[in-house]
Design goal:
Blueprint: H1 2-16, H2 23-26, E1 38-41, H3 43-49, H4 53-62, E2 70-76, E3 79-84, H5 86-100, E4 114-118, H6 132-148, E5 152-159, H7 165-175, H8 193-210, H9 214-227, H10 230-254, E6 260-263, H11 271-280, E7 284-287, E8 290-293, E9 302-305, H12 313-327, E10 332-335, H13 342-354, E11 363-365, E12 371-375, E13 378-381, H14 392-410, H15 416-436, E14 444-445, H16 448-451, H17 459-479, H18 492-502, H19 504-514, H20 517-537, H21 545-568
Parallel strand pairs: 4-5, 4-10, 5-6, 10-11, 12-14
Antiparallel strand pairs: 1-3, 2-3, 7-8, 8-9, 12-13
Helix pairs in contact: 5-18, 6-19, 7-8, 7-9, 9-10, 12-13, 14-15, 17-20, 17-21, 18-20, 18-21, 19-20, 20-21
The protein binds one RNA strand through helix 3, strand 9, helix 13, strand 14 and helix 17.
Length: 577
RNA sequence: GUCCCCGUAGCUCAGCUGGAUAGAGCAUCGGAUUCCUAAUCCGGAGGUCGCAGGUUCGAAUCCUGCCGGGGACGCCA
């Protein structure tokens, strides 16, 4: 749509003899279609030209407008309103989309820019819970959007595979061998090894409350791991491997993948070098036996090394950022992590800046609101520690199960393989969309009933709309109907749809810029809703063959837009459901 | 106490870098299916945009203060 606004902007600039203009961006849609299809408020110009807004509007309206896709230019007080020549506009719009082909919506706003997106980043030896959905899906959608906007993206999974917690796990492995020996059956052969590991961990933690000395045993195991003790390392590696294997199976269902999966353990060797740098710059300060860096007066100091000499995850984040920048000198690096870690990232970014790294300003905490679970009637942040987690996989399975029933009921002729494939896409899509519908900063209360509601503004609604497009295209193909050029698309609802379609590239660019997938979610809902309104009023394939051909091409453009949009959100666009 | 995020209809949320009468979905009430999938569509009812100032020709949108909710604030990640 910007393409068209730009033409108006250029013409206005030449009429008024202005050189630099950003008029294309200040144009809006009039509040009603009676007033026009596009509007330029003249207040800004009034300031520049020292004339009243209505005066300028009048002057512009009286000038000659030779854009072939414009019908008329009118004023409404300070507003300059344009009416589009529907036939010509439609022809040009359709042409634009179809020429772009599979690359429709692709932008060049990110050309030549490298972006790292860190997301998901689960801890190994723990199951993925529903709340992991947030970082995982938001991050994957951001990566997709940034790529589609032209950036070079490196998607990054910063695995939590290091820390004193693993000392506990290794201690538990040893302690409970008589009741649950992880070597028989071996971890790798078990049905759900991660769940077994998690159970062992929880059990150990509970014992810590009652039994004295378990903590020091756990610390000792972590020390062994750090020192490279063969048994500790081999068990840790096995734990890591089975965890990754499990994660991958879920990532695959969600359409999630990473260019880099690097655990915190990777940075362990680099810790001393980081600390040396901080020391050289005179930033490291002793405080209560620990070592800290004072970032600014606005925030508490960042803890670098504990009293016992061990480093913390923040120190590893410093090392990680520096290594990343060496490998891929990025223009942006997004951390898709919950808002609760705001201070932590401020400290990390601040320390990097103190170290003299210019690129510290390229680091962004793409924060999101927490997911709360209902615990004893109150909404609480879901935590693994106390048990009480809802497993992501179980939520997916429940959604798919419900979708299966629905698909079978609506479409009894499908064979079982089709039902399975469609249900998976609908169920998983519903879960994914429910997580990305609202702005990422909003906290979300986990309500299974709402996720499983397939009516209204939901993933299934979008997929259903896509299915309608496909049905029409299938039917047209079976009739051998050719695509038209769009010049007969003169209905008001058709203009609404064409304008909506043309905004797609702008929406992608904005969503990428703001790291805000919900911009796309909202856009797709509007597109679907406008189409369904149209669909209820007009027949696409009717008696008039040439009109049908033109409407067909509109449906094709809609399908390209919605289909691509769904893919960017990791939702599978379906042919039937 | 300090800092961060949020506060729009009964509930869940849109509202783009300020622009012409604040929009959806759910729930509720009433309608639509000979015809491209009714997982849909149409209509009714429902709002002092938390409150008070300020900036501006113009504020739900920007600034300040207050209130309410959530979160973070040193040896977990």
């Amino acid at each position: 749509m910007r393409h068209f606004r730009q033409q108006i902007g250029d013409r206005v600039a030449s009429i008024l003899d202005l050189t630099s203009t950003d008029l294309a961006d200040s144009m809006t849609d009039p509040p009603s279609q009676d007033l026009g299809d596009l509007s330029l408020p003249c207040f800004q110009l009034a300031k520049q030209l020292k004339k009243s807004p209505p005066e300028i509007a009048t002057q512009l309206a009286q000038a000659s407008w030779d854009l072939p896709w414009l019908q008329s230019v009118d004023t409404a007080g300070p507003y300059l309103n344009f009416k589009v020549n529907r036939s010509e506009f439609a022809r040009l719009a359709v042409e634009r989309v179809l020429q772009a082909g599979e690359g429709w919506g692709r932008g060049e706003s990110g050309q030549g820019q490298t972006v790292i997106v860190e997301y998901s980043s689960p801890n190994i030896a723990k199951q993925l819970a529903v709340h992991h959905l947030r970082s995982t899906m938001l991050g994957q959608a951001m990566a997709n959007l940034l790529r589609w906007a032209g950036h070079t993206v490196i998607s990054w999974n910063h695995l939590g595979d290091w820390g004193t917690g693993f000392g506990k796990l290794l201690a538990a492995w040893e302690k409970y061998r008589s009741t649950d020996d992880l070597d028989s059956p071996p971890l790798e052969k078990r049905e759900d090894p991660v769940s077994d590991l998690n159970a062992l961990y929880v059990r150990f933690n509970q014992s810590c409350q009652e039994e004295e000395g378990l903590d020091s045993i756990a610390r000792e195991w972590f020390r062994k791991l750090e020192a490279g003790d063969p048994l500790a390392v081999s068990r840790w590696k096995r734990i890591r491997a089975v965890s990754l294997h499990k994660f991958d199976s879920i990532y695959q269902r969600l359409g999630v993948s990473f260019d880099k999966t690097i655990g915190e353990s990777h940075y362990e060797q680099g810790m001393e070098a980081v600390i040396a740098q901080l020391q050289d710059k005179g930033l490291l300060v002793e405080s209560d036996g620990a070592e800290v860096v004072h970032v600014t007066d606005q925030m508490p100091p960042m803890l670098i090394r504990k009293q016992d000499g061990a480093t913390l995850y923040g120190t590893r984040d410093l090392a990680s950022a520096m290594e990343r920048h060496k490998l891929y000198p990025f223009d942006r690096c997004l951390y898709v992590v919950d808002a609760g870690q705001g201070l932590h990232f401020k400290q990390v970014f601040g320390v990097l800046k103190l170290l003299g790294h210019e690129w510290a300003s390229h680091l962004e905490h793409a924060e999101f609101g927490v997911m709360r679970l209902k615990v004893d009637g109150a909404w609480k942040k879901g935590k693994t520690r106390g048990g009480q987690v809802v497993l992501l996989e179980e939520v997916l399975n429940q959604a798919v199960q419900l979708a299966t029933r629905k698909v079978q009921e609506k479409n009894p002729d499908l064979d079982s393989q089709q039902v399975e494939q469609i249900s998976e896409a609908v169920g998983v899509g519903a879960v994914i969309f429910s997580d990305m519908k609202a702005a990422r900063r909003k906290d979300v209360n986990f309500e299974l009933e709402k996720i499983l509601a397939f009516d209204g503004e939901t993933g299934p609604y979008l997929q259903y709309t896509h299915v309608r497009f496909c049905s029409i295209l299938r039917k047209a193909a079976s009739q051998g109907l050719a695509a038209g050029d769009g010049r007969l698309l003169e209905e008001a609802e058709e203009l609404v749809l064409l304008k909506r379609i043309l905004r797609f590239p702008e929406v992608v660019a904005r969503a990428a810029r703001d790291a805000e997938p919900s911009h796309l979610s909202q856009y797709l809902l509007e597109l679907a809703s406008e189409f369904n309104t149209y669909y209820a009023q007009h027949r696409v394939l009717g008696d008039d063959a040439s009109l049908s051909s033109d409407r067909l091409v509109l449906v094709d453009a809609l399908k390209k837009t919605l289909g691509r949009g769904l893919q960017l959100l990791c939702i599978d666009p379906l042919e039937r459901m």
